[in-house]
Amino acid sequence: MTSQQRDQRKRRTVAVLGASGFVGSAVTAALARQDIRLRAVARRPSHVPGAEAAGGGAAGIEIRRADLTRPGELAEAVAGADVVIHLVMHSGGWRAAESDPASRAVNVGVMENLCEALGGDRAGRPPPLVVYAGAASQIGLPPDRPIDGSEPDHPATAYDQHKLAAERLLKEASARGVVRGVSLRLPTVFGHVPDSRAADRGFVAFMVRRALSGESLTLWHDGTVRRDLVHVEDVAGAFVAALGHPDALAGRHWLLGAGRGDPLGDVCRTVAELVAAREGKPPVPVVSVQPPEGAPATDFRSVTIDASPYRAITGWRPGVPLRAALERTVAALADARGE
Predict the structure, then answer these.
(1) Cα distance between residue 66 and residue 102, in whole Å
(2) Would you say 66 and 77 are in contact if contact means Cβ atoms under 8 Å apart?
(3) Which Gene3D superfamilies does its entry note (predicted)?
(4) Is 251 helix (H, G, I), strand (E, B) or coil?
């Protein structure tokens, strides 16, 4: 065996489940620069952004297709993995969770099958690290103060109930020593992943697309409601940071956030201004409208996140300023619209 082959065997194998999605594309792009063996797994073919430009990156990259709701395919996808990053969610998001039975099979069933698949004999190796993408909204209605992960969970939507159920399965498997489970509860994630084929369908991207189409930006409140906005590349960096601190993080959930709590009215007005400057037109109006019937109560409560517990262990903090992140998002979506 050559020294290069020995080095390859020493590399950790990191399997990313849901690698073709919006956050998954950013995470695989960040991992492609690490000294690992990267396995990008998704239902449709994954594309690892930046890998070609970097000559394949530092990681050895394997692209694998699998239906992760099928236990056999899931078990094959994670076989031999030292780290599993679980980013799988039902494509319909929180709205589908209210009515589509398939939503729970993806949002919770994949975690059930993953913990079972990883419960085999490890031949003396430590339990695999599983890093799960939870949601800050799992707590339900937030308090009138920054949240830090110590709050009791009272999920208000079916989607957040699914997220919490999957997280609890992971914590239980971690307590049994089957895995070293870490849940990163995500804030409002937005942005654009260069060279990615996955589109951001979140609040900020939605408003940018409306502004580019010349439509007014509508809010279900007076614009003072706050959200903790973090660029997708910073979120990807948080997942990479977790790989270096498995034992300190295992068995718990951790909140990610910028700690600002950005008023959505101000965010929309900045979006309108940036699009207007790019298009050479007056900014579209930002208006308040009557919310639709059944709009979740959490949409009308502000969220600011204190991520200092996670930062104290990993050193992670968001690095892309909000305005710069919005400028990049507007430029990317404008270019995509032009194409």
Answers:
(1) 17
(2) yes
(3) NAD(P)-binding Rossmann-like Domain
(4) coil
pLDDT digits (tens, 9 = 90+) for 138-194: 999 999 999 999 999 999 999 999 999 999 999 999 999 999 999 999 999 999 988
C-alpha dist (Å) from residue 157 to 11, 23, 50, 117, 307 = 40, 22, 36, 29, 23
Q: Contact 160/140 with Cβ under 8 angstroms?
A: yes
What values do phi and psi take at 159, rounded to 5?
A: -60, -45
Rounded Cα distance between 62 and 98, Å, is: 35
Q: How many separate domains does the chain show?
A: 1
Identify the CATH number of the domain in which residue 65 sits: 3.40.50.720
Task: Print the domain residue range for 146.
Answer: 10-192+229-260+305-319
Q: Are strands 60-65 and 37-42 parallel, antiparallel or unpaired?
A: parallel
What single-letter amino acid sits at 34?
A: Q
Q: Do the beta carbons of residue 261 and residue 304 sit within 8 Å?
A: yes
pTM of the model as a whole: 0.92
Is 176 within a domain?
Answer: yes
Q: What is the distance between the alpha carbons of residues 243 and 8, in angstroms, rounded to a whole number? A: 18
- The answer to whether position 34 is within a domain reads yes
Is residue 314 situated within a structural domain?
A: yes
